Amino acid sequence: MNPDDLVRRSARRRSGTSPRAFEEEEILTSEEARRLLKIGRTKLWELTKRNQIPAYRLGAAKSASLRYKKSELIHWLDRNRI
Predict the structure, then answer these.
(1) Are 18 and 12 in contact (CB under 8 A)?
(2) Phi/psi zone of residue 38: left (φ > 0), alpha (ψ -120 to 50 degrees), beta?
(3) Average pLDDT, stretch 32-47?
(4) What stretch of H or E contains 67?
(5) How many whole angstroms from its chain centre is CA 19?
(6) Which of 6, 16, 40, 55 has the maximum number of C-beta atoms within 10 A of its C-beta?
(7) Structure confidence by residue, pLDDT tens digits, 41-62
């Protein structure tokens, strides 16, 4: 078991949430969001720039890195199902 798994398990015990609920509230990096959505960097940026998927900037600078809530990305996928 890697250290991240131990931290998640410990947080679940303290919060009393189920493993599924905890995973949906995960905060993802751009790379993790791209992997989840199975899209490239350019497409993720286009969707973010057009406010089609919500993102959170870490810092005030325009070059600050972005983060995404896993639950919001999953919700976006569900809304855009064909």
Answers:
(1) yes
(2) left
(3) 96
(4) strand 66-69
(5) 16
(6) 55
(7) 999 999 999 999 999 999 888 8
